[in-house]
């Protein structure tokens, strides 16, 4: 079910969206040790983004925050920022169609450079996404993604997980996960973190006999209200008991 995409694809795939012109100011604060890109640190407040770029060109609201698009002085590219709980969780530079850009990441990979440049500079990626994007660790936390199209780098993105910011959660206050209507709501920045939250939740709730639940099957479900769910079938390691857990994964499905 996992389909990893970068920021522009997220904008077209995210549920419950609406575009709004933005013209308000924010008060900003900065985080200290997290990585940065385009002069913006992941984890810092939304006000810092407006300070760096000015007012966003457009804002698209999603279930767990908003995406902001900024026009850059660098004519060959635009910036995309995702905000969750007033914190920056993604910042990316996106090459405009037919554009050429001098924007580069801290390692020296330049937007619009040949695809081979990424691995020449950064070495082998820790993962290659389904869309061909290359994933690397960011220090001390987060990940870098490089989108490759037509043999060149068309997007560079820096992300930070909700978990690293203390924002990732599995909310079972409205349900015990026994049915789709009583699904446990997962809030996560991306699919990797969301799936980890599912694993962590199930591991923290052992079966009655004291054994651990072992995953046997996973299915993606949808509902009329546009929410998406994981059905996780599990079997107890000691008693053989079976059950299903249901998680609402709307917040992270289709996200980096």
Architecture overview:
By secondary structure, the protein is mainly β. The chain has two domains: 7-159, no CATH class; 169-248, no CATH class. The protein is 14% helix and 35% strand. It contains four helices and 16 strands. The chain has helices spanning 7-13, 46-53, 116-122, 191-203; strands spanning 18-20, 36-37, 40-41, 58-62, 65-71, 77-84, 87-95, 127-128, 134-137, 143-149, 152-159, 169-171, 184-187, 213-222, 228-236, 242-248. Residues 1-31 have low confidence and may be disordered.
Give a quick set of tags describing it.
256 residues; mainly beta; 9-stranded antiparallel β-sheet; 5-stranded mixed β-sheet; 35% strand; elongated; disordered N terminus
Oligomer: single chain
What Rg is obtained from the alpha carbons, in whole angstroms? Answer: 20 Å
Major sheet description:
9 strands, antiparallel
Number of helices: 4
In angstroms, what separates the terminal alpha carbons? 13 Å
Which ranges are low-confidence, i.e. pLDDT below 50, for 5 or more consecutive residues?
1-31
Query: What is the total domain count?
Result: 2
| Gross geometry | elongated
Compute the average pLDDT. 81
What is the chain-wise order of helices and strands? HEEEHEEEEHEEEEEEHEEE
Strand content: 35-45%
Number of distinct beta strands = 16
Specify the structural class. Answer: mainly beta
> How helical, in percent, are the residues?
10-25%
Order of strands in the sheet with most strands:
1-4-5-6-7-11-10-9-8
